[in-house]
Amino acid sequence: MTIGVCVAILLRRKIGLKVRGILQESINSIQIGGIVKLTKKIIKGTLFFESIGAVLLMIRFIRIRNRKRNLVRDLSFYISLLQRRV
Question: How confident is the model over 40-62, as pLDDT tens digits?
Answer without folding.
Answer: 888 889 889 988 988 888 787 77
